[in-house]
Amino acid sequence: MTDETYMRRALELAEKGAGWVSPNPLVGAVIVKDEEIIGEGYHERYGQLHAERNALAHCTKSPKGATIYVTLEPCCHHGKQPPCTDALLAAGIRRVVIGSKDPNPLVHGKGIRILREHGVEVTEHVLEKECDAENEVFFHYMQTKLPFVILKYAMTLDGKIATYTGASRWVTGEAARAHVHRMRNRYRAIMVGVGTVLADDPMLTCRLKGTENGANPVRIICDSTLRTPLESQIVRSAKEIPTILATCNRQEAMHMPYIEAGCKILVTPEKDGHVDLSDLMQQLGQLGIDSVILEGGGTLNWSALQAGIVQKVQAYVASKLFGGTEAKTPVEGQGFHTPADAVELTRTKITALGSDWLIEGYPVENRRNMGCLQES
């Protein structure tokens, strides 16, 4: 087998840690000796063994003289776990094949240098593009200390997210909705405006098996004046599921009922009468929240695009037509002045999900037009 074959297996293993390792990266490792896989591992939970040490622990024979394939450069510093470079050297690994170089300044290139200085052969850039893509959240957060923001919505073929009556259950089918819950499991937080809470009283949880053990996203409600009902599902479940209310209201007396219910309050400056989006992203990044799914309405989506905070777009498109002049659309607000001003997407990908489609892409550039976060 080729280096690429073993690295693809390492990528498959790394995916198993999705939803559990944040803010750490997804990492998988495969140990090969005499063209036989003798050990496999991945980073399973934040704070637990890294992929390399897991693979070594599961070896069926001595790893001395073997090759290890790892999707990300082995760490060389003490964090929650000791350096993986130490473990590889102690095990007598002869060759290390790496997909991505670690952007963490504590590691970047240093792990590779240490291995080579000790006589270990190191091969870099194997399936680098795929390995980079698997850790797009980690790379963005490590380089900016800001959350990786995914703008997500479901719409019909005629571009409606609800009927003219406001009914939106369900725009897409079961396969697409199941995919949404896998994404909620994968990313660290989900954010909506208070308008969504008032209209739908959502739970914003991940309904997948196993998520009751802690893989629900952190729920973030943008509520400039603190209108979130204390009897809402969000507030009533805040002691079980991490919940943040972002507000411009500085009256501590109004904060207390929410705090007592288990919510965390983040106060931001006011920007055009609403929560300051840039300040909020800074605060979320400081809390270790590395990724946020936006699941609000068209006004929130417009504000996010206008502010230039969106790194990725996920549009679920249903094979339905709602019609209606007044029916809501995914992106509202004023809109851009000319077609040339539009946010363009690159690296687009289309995936069939039952009778629906998922269209994903990345904004060509993040626009920073001093936009504000609207509440819908």
UniProtKB/TrEMBL annotation:
Residue ranges of domain CMP/dCMP-type deaminase in the record: 1-123
TM stretches of this protein: none
Binding site for Zn(2+): H50, C75, C84
GO MF term set: 5-amino-6-(5-phosphoribosylamino)uracil reductase activity; diaminohydroxyphosphoribosylaminopyrimidine deaminase activity; NADP binding; zinc ion binding
E.C. designation(s): 3.5.4.26, 1.1.1.193
Active site annotation, chain numbering: E52
GO biological process, one term: riboflavin biosynthetic process
Annotated substrate binding sites: S168, R184, L204, R207, E295
Keywords: Hydrolase, Metal-binding, Multifunctional enzyme, NADP, Oxidoreductase, Riboflavin biosynthesis, Zinc
Reactions accelerated catalytically: 2,5-diamino-6-hydroxy-4-(5-phosphoribosylamino)-pyrimidine + H2O + H(+) = 5-amino-6-(5-phospho-D-ribosylamino)uracil + NH4(+); 5-amino-6-(5-phospho-D-ribitylamino)uracil + NADP(+) = 5-amino-6-(5-phospho-D-ribosylamino)uracil + NADPH + H(+)
Hydrolase as UniProt keyword: yes
Record-listed NADP(+) binding positions: A154, W170, T196, D200, S224, G297, G298, T299, L300, N301, W302, S303
Source superkingdom: Bacteria
Pathway(s) where this gene product acts: Cofactor biosynthesis; riboflavin biosynthesis; 5-amino-6-(D-ribitylamino)uracil from GTP: step 3/4; Cofactor biosynthesis; riboflavin biosynthesis; 5-amino-6-(D-ribitylamino)uracil from GTP: step 2/4
Known cofactor(s): Zn(2+)
UniProt keyword Chaperone present: no
Record's cofactor remark: Binds 1 zinc ion.
Family from the record: In the C-terminal section; belongs to the HTP reductase family. In the N-terminal section; belongs to the cytidine and deoxycytidylate deaminase family.
Record PANTHER family: 2,5-DIAMINO-6-RIBOSYLAMINO-4(3H)-PYRIMIDINONE 5'-PHOSPHATE REDUCTASE, DIHYDROFOLATE REDUCTASE FAMILY PROTEIN (AFU_ORTHOLOGUE AFUA_8G06820)
Function: Converts 2,5-diamino-6-(ribosylamino)-4(3h)-pyrimidinone 5'-phosphate into 5-amino-6-(ribosylamino)-2,4(1h,3h)-pyrimidinedione 5'-phosphate.
Protein name per UniProt: Riboflavin biosynthesis protein RibD
Record organism: Roseburia faecis
